[in-house]
Amino acid sequence: MVSMESSSSHLYERLGGEIGIERLVGRFYERVQADEHLAPFFEHVPMGRLKMMQKEFFSEAVGGPLYYTGRSLRQVHAGRGIRKEDLRRFTGHLVATLKEAEKELGISPQETHAIYSRIAIEADRITDDVTESA
Ligand code: HEM
After folding, report:
1. 58 CB less than 6 Å from ligand 1?
2. Which domains occur in the chain, in start order?
């Protein structure tokens, strides 16, 4: 668990706290599941639990006070055939969701970038392929 300075806790509040982050995660998965390339990965997934885990994960990414209690990201994603291209699409939807919130909530582009970086840093735990796909 990484400790963060108080400005990060303010970010949690400005995102609307737990409810706000829940809304953000909901919008994010709307985009992901509307993407025909990504939807199949989530077909048999209990989305309620996934969104709850992502709410924790996003909250931790902005400095708490909620922290991730889920499984290891490597274990969760291994063997699903997730390629770098899928990851790129996934993080593309994340950026789009955050950009939308930026406008609505007055989050700065630097803050958006900080959230995105914290989440994208997990990338090498997610994909099964070792080479960059076309
Ligand atoms: C940096 C990128 C990503 C992060 C941080 C991330 C994070 C997470 C987290 C926190 C969970 C919940 C784990 C739990 O239930 O204990 C999860 C589950 C899952 N993720 Fe990701 N994820 C990422 C990218 C992806 C991508 C690119 C895909 C597919 C294209 C994907 C597919 C899934 C699926 C299918 C589950 C549900 C597993 C299950 O409950 O059976 N994830 N992810």
Report:
1. no
2. 6-125 (1.10.490.10)
Give the residue ranges of DSSP H helices in the chain: 6-14, 17-34, 47-61, 73-77, 84-105, 109-120
78 lines ligand 1 (CB under 6 A): no
Integer Cα distance of 67 and 56 in angstroms: 5
How many CB atoms neighbour CB 106 within 10 A? Answer: 9
Ligand 1 atom closest to Cα of 32?
Answer: 30
Spatial distance between the Cα atoms of 45 and 61, rounded to a whole number of angstroms: 23
Band of residue 134 on the pLDDT scale cut at 50, 70, 90: very low
* pLDDT tens digit sequence for 20-61: 999 999 999 999 999 999 999 999 999 999 999 999 999 998
Q: Which atom of ligand 1 is nearest to the CA of 56?
A: 10
Could you tell me if 38 and 32 are in contact, meaning their C-beta atoms sit under 8 angstroms apart?
Answer: yes
Hey, what amino acid is at 132? E
